[in-house]
Every structure is written in structure tokens, then in C-alpha cells.
């Protein structure tokens, strides 16, 4: 009968509530009072409704508030739960508790997504795919918020909102780039550093055959720190153990908008659990400097990849998705993945896009879900210790940390874990000028896309690529934009430009040397010294 007893009984029943069948449940108002039937609106004879009818008011007003904002990007997605297991511990690289011993496990939640479309959009859009994993480690949650492509469209975070606007609906016509690709191509033709990702997008990997048959890549350079404080740069790879499969543009038109959702859900439902390996490429700070000196690849530039021959992958573990969400909204839509969620031993690099993302995700979560989103079951950490801090109150504070002090108290202090490695040791390496800009285009920006065209794509893949690009160009009426874009493709390989010219009937510019791009940091920088020139 006491409040204590009530809380003990009611609030330890999340799992019971999640799993309860309808047969065990009585229909009630939100305050728990049984109602004989939902279709009993109280009405005065043949007259108006009564405000006293709490059941109807409760029903309608909750319904009115059912929608939360969809994710501003990656709104269409699918998720599932599973388990990560360490197969090859790496204490020499990383002090994270999870990676210390073979067989260490943790519960995970994964969310896959497309990027540009709204939450009801087509799963088989030609678009990168998001691949997020929440690892619930003993030391708190570690989120990998990755894509299925190892590179990205930009290296200057200020471009991200503008870039995304060009991939979303037009403010005037309200059309997407499926009907009018003018803004889509204008962005790329003004920002040539996007070319590598554009090549991947229009290649075969641009439409994965559902989510089970694709890899995930951190894309960003991160850092791994071991218990001695030694650190290396790293890139994470999640490799599909199902292999890579894709749909051609033509094939993709034959499937329902929820193809990937259905494919993932049904595979898990019938016990055909998809699996990925977690692997890592590493690089010492000295090697990073050499990579810049010799190949002009900046490890903080996610439009570039690390050459796999020079930096082989090393396996750490495997994960399996073996449990569908019982309730999509609670377990997938409300999931909040954040690249700033890192555990000791895993650190951000100075990559400016990564640094910006560290701010942007929790910022959007407070808006999209609410200030206490970390308390929701799918987001809550599951640590080896009771965790505490001085965050209190706010909307829907469910776990409000009891009677413990809400300030740094010396009378009743919480426990503090010392930092395993001094921050000076892992972050004492920032060098360079006070302000630098990221928009210069360099010849090296075209090396990897060229290798993709010349060495990775075979002839049928090249033909599909030309079809995909020229097909997309057909919905851009602005010829000037397409001339620019063809010039950018010419920097990759004249063969691509020539084939596109033939397919579109548009003669592109000779190359980008004399072209001006949006913004003040223009031209093709051929010399390291002009790296920071305006
Ligand atoms: C989702 C911002 C670049 C991968 C999001 C969301 C925002 C955002 C605001 C919505 C999050 C939510 O509502 O929960 C940005 C910004 C970027 C950037 C500002 C650059 C400056 C990237 C890059 C990657 C990436 C480079 C991959 C390497 C993802 C993924 C999701 C996402 C996978 C979906 C997460 C989920 O499943 O809930 N991004 N993003 N983003 N982003 Fe980014």
C-alpha cells in the first residue's frame, strides 16, 4: 500500500509490459481505470459531447501527439537487436574493457537507414546507407554511427546542411531530386571533393540488396589508445558475412518501398541471423605524416580512404542480429545513436566533420526525443556499476537519481573513476595554423575515384555506371550544371566524360582548372603551399 511498494512493483516491469499479450491486459484510460468499451463517447442524447468524458479526451489528445520529429537525415530505417562477441582481443591497441578478452560479449542494437528520404520513402533509393551500432559495454555505451561507404561527400562540416538541403525537397516546387535533379547536380558540380562518393553512389554499391548484404565503415579516422597511453589512428570496418549483393537501377523498381525492412525482419524471424565482422585498420601518427608527404592523403579528410595494401585490416570480433524489435517506435525510432558516445580507449580524431558530428547528434536528440532520451530503455547504458551524475529534472525524468545530491557534494560524494590515460598524452598533438580552410581541390582528390573506374569496375559495371549517371542527369534541365559535372568526371578519367557526353548529348568542359566553385577557396591547388590560400 505504500509508495515504496507501488514503485517496486510497477516500475520494475518494463519487460513484462513489453511482452504481455492482449489476453493479459484490461482496457483502461491512461490513469489505469477500466473502461467497458472504447466506442462509448458520452453524449447528451442527440446533442453535443461532454467534456467530462476523460476517456475520449485522453484518447484524442494522446493521438494528436503521436508523432515525434523524424530524423532530419536517415529518417527511413530498420533496426534489430543482437550480440557482439570478441574473437580476437586487441589489448595492445585499445584499453576498452570490451576488447580485452576473447569471448567478451555485449548486447547491441543496430539501425540501418537510407539518408535523404523521409520516413516513408523507398528503401531501394540510390543513396548511401546508414549503419549504426550501439554497443552496451560494461563501461557505458559505444555507438558506431557509420555508413555503407568508406568515404563521404565533404570534408568541411559547414557544407553539410547545404548539401542535405540540395538532396531534400525543393522549397518552391516541393519536389524531390527524383523529379528534378537540378539542385542535386548543382551541389556536386560546385563541390568536386564529393567525386569519390559520387562514383561509389552511382556504381553497383549505390543500391544494396537490402541491409544484410552491405558493409559498414566508420569513414572517419578515430583513435585507439592502449593502457600505456600509446595510441594509433584507426578506421573501423564492419564486413557483411553474407557477402555484398546489390540491385541494378532497373531491378530496384520491381520491389516495394519497404523491401529492406521486410528482408531484414523476415530473415531474423526465421532464424537466418545476419552477421558482420568488426575489423580495424590502424596507422601510427608517424605513418600519417608519411602518408601526407608521399601520397597527399590527409587522415582527417574523409573524402579519402586509407590504402588497404598499406594498412591491412585486423579482426576484433563478430556481431549477430538475432532479435527483432517487439515495438518499432520504442526500440528503433527512439534509438539515439551518437558518434560522441565513446568508451575509454576509443577517441575522436581531429577530423573536422567528426568533430562537428560530436556536437550535432546529441543536440538533435534533445530536440527529436527530449532531454531525458538517455533514460529510455533502448538508449540506457548497462554498466557494471550504478551510474550517477548531476543531471536532474527536465521533461519525463523517470530515473531522477533519488535523494543523492544534485551537486558536487563533499558530504555525500559519488565515486570517481580515475582516467586510464592522461588526456595530454592522447590529445597533445594538435599542430598547424590557427585557422585553415578545407575547400581546396587537389589532384590527389581524383586518384581513388580513378582507381575505382579503371581497376575496380569491370566493363559491365562501367556501363551500368554511365546509365545510372546519365539517367539521373536526364532530370536536370540546366545544361551549365551538367557541363561542370562532366568536367569533374573528366578529371577522374576522360573516358567517363566522353561516355557521358555521348549518353547525354551534352559537351562538358575540358577540366576543372579554370573553373570557379562556390565559396572563396577556389581552384585546383597543385602545391602544398597554396593549401591555405584564399
Ligand atoms: C543521422 C548530422 C555526417 C552517419 C544524422 C542525424 C543528424 C546528422 C542530425 C540525425 C540523428 C538523429 O535524429 O538521431 C550529421 C552532420 C554531419 C553528418 C552534421 C556532418 C557534418 C555523417 C557521416 C556519417 C553519418 C560522415 C557516416 C560516416 C549517420 C547515420 C545516421 C545519421 C548512420 C543515422 C543514425 C540512426 O540510425 O539513428 N546525422 N551527419 N553522418 N548520420 Fe549523420
Automatic annotation (TrEMBL):
Residues 28-415 form the Catalase core domain. The active site is at 74, 147. Keywords: Alkaloid metabolism, Heme, Hydrogen peroxide, Iron, Metal-binding, Oxidoreductase, Peroxidase. Pathway: Alkaloid biosynthesis. It comes from the Eukaryota. It is an enzyme of class 1 (oxidoreductase). Its EC number is 1.11.1.6. PANTHER family: CATALASE, CATALASE T. Catalyzes the degradation of hydrogen peroxide (H(2)O(2)) generated by peroxisomal oxidases to water and oxygen, thereby protecting cells from the toxic effects of hydrogen peroxide. This is Catalase. It comes from Emericellopsis atlantica.
Amino acid at each position: 500500500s505504500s509508495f515504496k511498494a507501488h514503485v517496486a512493483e510497477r516500475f520494475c516491469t518494463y519487460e513484462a509490459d513489453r511482452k504481455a499479450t492482449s489476453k493479459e491486459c484490461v482496457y483502461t484510460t491512461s490513469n489505469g481505470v477500466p473502461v467497458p468499451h472504447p466506442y462509448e463517447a458520452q453524449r447528451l442524447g442527440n446533442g453535443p459531447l461532454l467534456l467530462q468524458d476523460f476517456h475520449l479526451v485522453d484518447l484524442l489528445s494522446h493521438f494528436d501527439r503521436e508523432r515525434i520529429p523524424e530524423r532530419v537525415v536517415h529518417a527511413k530505417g530498420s533496426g534489430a537487436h543482437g550480440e557482439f562477441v570478441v574473437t580476437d582481443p586487441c589489448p595492445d591497441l585499445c584499453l576498452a574493457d570490451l576488447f580485452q578478452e576473447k569471448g567478451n560479449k555485449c548486447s547491441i542494437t543496430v539501425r540501418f537507414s537510407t539518408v535523404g528520404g523521409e520516413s516513408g520513402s523507398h528503401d531501394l533509393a540510390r543513396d548511401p546507407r546508414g549503419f549504426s551500432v550501439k554497443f552496451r559495454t560494461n563501461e557505458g555505451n559505444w555507438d558506431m554511427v557509420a555508413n555503407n561507404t568508406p568515404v563521404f561527400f565533404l570534408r568541411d562540416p559547414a557544407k553539410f546542411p547545404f548539401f542535405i538541403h540540395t538532396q531534400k525537397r525543393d522549397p518552391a516546387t516541393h519536389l524531390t531530386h527524383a523529379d528534378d535533379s537540378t539542385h542535386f547536380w548543382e551541389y556536386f558540380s560546385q563541390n568536386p571533393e564529393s567525386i569519390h562518393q559520387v562514383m561509389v553512389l552511382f556504381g553497383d554499391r549505390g543500391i544494396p540488396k537490402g541491409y544484410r548484404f552491405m558493409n559498414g565503415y566508420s569513414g572517419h579516422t578515430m583513435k585507439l589508445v592502449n593502457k600505456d597511453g600509446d595510441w594509433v589512428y584507426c578506421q573501423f570496418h564492419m564486413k557483411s558475412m553474407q557477402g555484398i549483393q546489390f540491385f541494378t537501377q532497373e531491378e530496384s523498381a520491381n520491389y516495394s518501398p519497404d523491401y529492406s525492412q521486410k528482408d531484414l525482419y523476415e530473415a531474423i524471424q526465421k532464424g537466418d541471423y545476419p552477421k558482420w565482422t568488426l575489423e580495424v585498420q590502424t596507422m601510427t601518427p608517424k605513418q600519417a605524416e608519411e602518408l601526407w608527404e608521399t601520397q597527399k592523403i590527409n587522415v582527417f579528410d574523409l573524402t579519402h580512404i586509407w590504402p588497404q595494401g598499406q594498412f591491412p585490416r585486423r579482426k576484433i570480433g563478430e556481431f549477430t542480429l538475432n532479435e527483432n524489435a517487439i515495438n518499432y517506435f520504442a526500440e528503433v525510432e527512439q534509438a539515439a545513436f551518437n558518434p560522441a558516445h565513446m568508451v575509454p580507449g576509443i577517441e575522436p580524431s581531429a577530423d573536422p566533420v567528426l568533430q562537428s558530428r560530436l556536437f550535432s547528434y546529441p543536440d538533435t536528440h534533445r530536440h527529436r526525443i527530449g532531454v531525458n532520451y538517455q533514460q529510455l530503455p533502448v538508449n540506457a547504458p548497462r554498466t557494471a556499476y550504478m551510474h550517477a551524475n548531476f543531471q536532474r529534472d527536465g521533461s519525463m525524468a523517470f530515473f531522477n537519481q533519488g535523494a543523492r545530491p544534485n551537486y558536487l557534494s563533499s558530504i555525500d560524494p559519488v565515486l570517481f573513476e580515475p582516467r586510464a590515460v592522461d588526456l595530454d598524452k592522447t590529445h597533445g598533438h594538435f599542430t598547424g595554423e590557427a585557422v585553415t580552410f578545407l575547400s581546396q581541390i587537389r589532384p590527389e582528390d581524383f586518384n581513388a575515384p580513378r582507381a575505382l573506374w579503371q581497376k575496380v569496375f569491370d566493363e559491365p559495371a562501367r556501363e551500368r555506371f554511365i546509365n545510372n549517371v546519365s539517367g539521373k542527369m536526364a532530370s536536370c534541365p540546366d545544361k551549365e550544371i551538367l557541363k561542370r559535372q562532366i568536367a569533374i568526371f573528366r578529371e577522374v578519367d576522360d573516358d567517363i566524360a566522353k561516355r557521358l557526353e555521348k549518353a547525354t548529348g551534352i559537351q562538358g568542359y575540358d577540366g576543372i582548372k579554370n573553373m570557379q566553385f562556390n565559396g572563396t577557396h577556389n581552384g585546383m591547388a597543385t602545391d602544398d603551399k597554396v593549401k591555405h590560400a584564399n
